[in-house]
Write the structure tokens for this entry.
Amino acid sequence: MSPGNARPTVRGWPGLMVELLLYVSLVSVVGTLVAYGLYRAWGLEHEWAFHKLVLRSCKLVALPLLGVWLHLEHRGGRAGWGLEGSFKRWLSELGVGMLMGVSTLLLVAVLLGSAGVRQVSAAAWDGGAERLAMLLLHGFLTGVAVASIEELWFRGGLLAALSRTGRPGAGAAIATSVLYAATHYIKPDGWVADGAVEWWTGFEVLAGSFGRFVGIGSDLGSFIALFLAGALLCLVRLRTGRIAAAVGIHAGWVLVIQVFRRSTEATVANDVSPSWQHALAGSYDGTIGWMAAIVFVLAMAVLYRWRPMG
């Protein structure tokens, strides 16, 4: 199934990659200029760190610009964004997806604990049941918010925009998943002092936001796990035709990660030479590493066999 309700356009990958590069460039330029405008017009000098505002502004304009791209390709509407289906169907797929997301990452958490990578933090549980309830609530709300935005962006509009090669979305899923994994490594390297912000400062912030890519080779497991997570979500989107289940899975992952990170502590120091234990958890967030990559592959295999394509 191809996302969207328009007939797929057969076009080579060079053309699609040029369009993707143009889209990313526009997001960067427009987002940076919007950040500067907000910073000056709303007097945010003492309320917002400019380097954080730049990335958030880029995220803010990413969806509208993607909407323009889809409109130009006649692939907009609810189907193009993966929003088709009744409310009842959405709730059903959302619930099943969250159950799948929680179960897969919970398996990763249990395996990491069994491998001695992380251990329960006594200090984190001083609050007892009340703290656990707050951790669950915070993780749930964060998961729903993050998953809704990112799934609408990546597995919704972007996957639809790239699914125009006449194939069942495999190439588009790969490109989307690579970009999804890469965005997790974009982070400003330094603080911009108040009074030092000019219209071009945002471009300097973006240029200095790719330092984490240098260290990907030493922790390839995290990047591959993020790529496989994106691929799994793409597969779910292509199978169901909607992003509902993908939102649920993603929200479940975030929920488990939030609780796991705040209730446990690493047993392997991050500043020592990487060990096989450290590689299992990865250095991105202490959870997404080779162990998660293995579980994601198994989940995709089960999903593929459970509901064969075609």
User: Anything to note?
Assistant: Confidence is low (pLDDT under 50) at residues 4-10. The chain has one domain: 13-306. Residues 94 and 174 are 24 Å apart (CA to CA).
